[in-house]
Design a protein that fits this description.
- This protein is α+β, with helices and mostly antiparallel strands and about 600 residues long.
- The chain has three domains: about 250 residues, Alkaline Phosphatase, subunit A, CATH 3.40.720; about 60 residues, 2-Layer Sandwich (Arylsulfatase, C-terminal domain), CATH 3.30.1120.10; about 150 residues, Sandwich (Jelly Rolls).
- The protein has a ten-stranded mixed beta sheet with strand order 7-6-5-4-8-1-9-11-2-12, sandwiched between helices. Strands 18, 20, 23, 25, 26 and 28 form a six-stranded mixed beta sheet that branches. A four-stranded antiparallel beta sheet has the order 14-15-16-17, covered by helices on one side.
- Helix 1 packs across helix 6, helix 6 runs parallel beside helix 8 and helix 7 crosses helix 8.
- The N terminus is likely disordered.
Length: about 600
């Protein structure tokens, strides 16, 4: 009875909204063949860093469930990602360096992958997999940049670079706004487990990009209580730079992540899927604070070793030998070709890959087989800074050379004693700039509205530009809203391209105290506009501070309310979608978090 009830629960959680057509598994012999393909679960954490695991030697915390993936499978000694969130995600999804897909930023549209890129979700869905992503997407919001347009049948989470509140916030489910339930990491994991249970009789690909320990530093009391006053025997290499309360909060969030990984692994075991499932764990960049990280130089945002080194654990019991430690360097660009080969899927349709399949390393029977692995260089780039890593050396963005085998902390520049190595890596860097950065285009992409496959579009304040006295609630746009709208001469605009002409319902997510009610607001595009008078006050409190374990720099959030201002006819083409205040009888027009557009078909 309990098993039947769980099945019904999973079905209730996942009444899938059909966004685009997806391949369905055929009956008969083809079904049996597809069922032999392994399931794939990819867990990606946000701002965790290599050092935030007990398996890395950190005695400040315990992560037994994540560590078990290394014990039961393979761990890569030197695995590299990008200095920040969105480029790492793009490289994992495409198998290509992020400049090739035009990921140029972490907000205001720069996080989007070009639409001609093929993702690992596209490939696995074409191979008959049920595909889902739960958590922080950070590679585009408006369809088809949205996860549902990049190969994922199911999405639940948020598309922004960070979120302002981690306890039952507004979230996105297949493009629609919904309320979350509880702490975000717990909630995303619950949905992943429900999806797995519902699809346990066919191959599935679950991408679980958890949003912790990214700030704001919020974590349930169950984990915080163990860390609030906990001694930290292991400190950053420059301890005077470490904020110990921030460290404690981050480590508490990491232990919560470990608990959720344990729950997911237990669910696979309960469903007897452990030996049929490849589980991959890695992080998206270096740690988001000065804390213990193995003595490496650099943290999040840096192209030095500590900013780009991540754990990589790959577990597939019975197929990948347990307890392996793989020494050749590898990177996020390698994961797509590796998953394609492990699953026997086709990589047809992808652009030329920068990554290479790691299967020969994972399936090697002895060290001699791994020693035949070809030497390579890996490149870390962000903000104009490029660093080159070979198996032994790192050439940093200033031209300093380090022997990483004898000097893993990058403390002694050896350019003078190894000029040939420095010259060789500098030439490699120059070739990479000519080859890869030449594909980076000026980012003039508009935000897309009205794709024919969907009826909905979200336009958050993050993607808009404001004029005059209007201010963002934070210098970080990702989860911000507009306030201080005091002049009728000011406006908020989105640079959009309407893909399908039609009539759209326009909803503004707003807040406004009773004393300021009465503004006349206009939404316009080209020669069309709709006006409405705001007559209902909505003055929710700012939330987040009570749950923060350390002060934040991001915006706090409010419970913004949708206001259906009316319908607007949008002609196809590019232009400025504008919200303006025709009349402001009070001190301000309104505070604005989001616009949604729903097309009438």
């Amino acid at each position: 009875m309990m098993k039947l009830q769980r099945t019904f629960l999973a079905a209730a959680l996942y009444v899938t909204v059909a966004i685009v057509g997806s391949p369905r598994i055929s009956q008969g012999n083809e079904l049996n063949e597809v069922r032999r393909q392994p399931n794939v679960v990819v867990i990606l954490t946000d701002d965790q860093g290599w050092g935030d695991l007990s398996s890395s030697g950190n005695k400040n915390l315990q992560t037994p469930n994540i560590d078990s993936l290394a014990r039961d499978g393979a761990s890569f000694d030197r695995f590299f990602v990008c200095p920040l969130c969105s480029p790492t995600r793009a490289e994992f999804l495409t198998g290509r360096y992020h400049p090739r897909s035009n990921v140029v930023g972490v907000s205001t549209g720069g996080e989007r992958m070009d639409l001609d890129e093929v993702t690992i979700a596209d490939l696995l869905r074409n191979a008959g997999y049920a595909t889902a992503a739960f958590g922080k997407w950070h590679n585009g919001t408006q369809y088809p940049y949205h996860p549902n347009g990049r190969g994922f049948d199911e999405f639940y989470g948020f598309c922004s670079g960070h979120w302002g509140h981690y306890f039952s916030p507004l979230l996105d489910r297949n493009g629609r706004i919904v309320n979350g339930h509880g702490y975000t990491s717990d909630d995303f994991t619950e949905h992943a487990m429900a999806f797995i249970e519902l699809h346990r009789d066919r191959p599935f690909f679950v991408y679980l990009p958890l949003n912790t320990p990214h700030s704001p530093m919020q974590v349930p009391e169950r984990w915080w209580s163990e860390f609030a006053d906990k001694p930290l025997p292991m400190r950053h290499r420059e301890p005077n730079r470490e904020d110990t309360q921030h460290t404690r909060a981050a480590l508490a969030m990491c232990e919560n992540t470990d608990w959720n990984v344990g729950r997911l692994l237990a669910k696979l075991g309960e469903l007897q899927l452990t030996r049929d499932t490849i589980v991959i764990f890695f992080c998206d960049n270096g740690p988001n604070g000065f804390r213990w990280n193995g003595g490496m130089k650099g943290r999040k945002g840096s192209t030095d070793e500590g900013g780009v080194r991540s754990p990589l654990f790959v577990s597939w019991p019975g197929k990948i030998a347990a307890g392996q430690r793989i020494m050749p360097i590898a990177a996020a660009i390698d994961l797509l070709p590796t998953i394609v080969e492990l699953t026997g899927s086709s990589g047809e349709g992808t652009k030329p890959l920068d990554g290479r399949s790691l299967v020969p390393l994972l399936m090697a029977t002895d060290d001699s087989a791994r020693s035949a692995w070809p030497e390579r260089n890996l490149f870390s780039f962000w903000g104009g800074k490029l660093s080159v890593r070979s198996q032994r050396y790192r050439l940093d963005h200033e031209g300093h050379l380090y022997d990483m085998q004898v000097d893993p902390g990058q403390e002694k520049d050896i350019v003078a004693s190894e000029p040939d190595v420095a010259s060789r890596l500098a030439d490699a860097a120059q070739h990479w700039r000519a080859d890869v950065l030449s594909e980076l285009k000026k980012d003039d992409r508009p935000f897309l509205v009205g794709h024919s496959d969907v009826t909905w579009t979200q336009l958050p304040a993050r993607d808009a530009v404001a004029t005059g006295t209007i201010k963002r609630s934070s210098v970080h746009p990702n989860c911000s809203y507009f306030t201080n709208w005091t002049s009728a001469n000011d406006a908020v605009t989105w640079d959009v391209e309407v893909l399908q002409e039609g009539t759209y319902d326009i909803d503004l997510y707003y807040a406004c105290p009773p004393k300021d009610v009465g503004a006349t607001v206009r939404v316009s595009f080209r020669n069309s506009h709709v006006e409405g008078r705001l007559v209902e006050a909505h003055d929710p409190p700012v939330v987040g501070a009570a749950e923060d374990r350390v002060p934040r720099t991001e915006s706090y959030v409010k419970d913004f309310k949708p206001w259906r201002i009316g319908q607007l006819h949008l002609s196809a083409g590019r232009g400025q979608l504008m919200v303006s205040a025709v009349q402001i009888p009070g001190a301000q027009a309104l505070e604005l978090r989001l616009m949604t557009l729903t097309r009438h078909d």
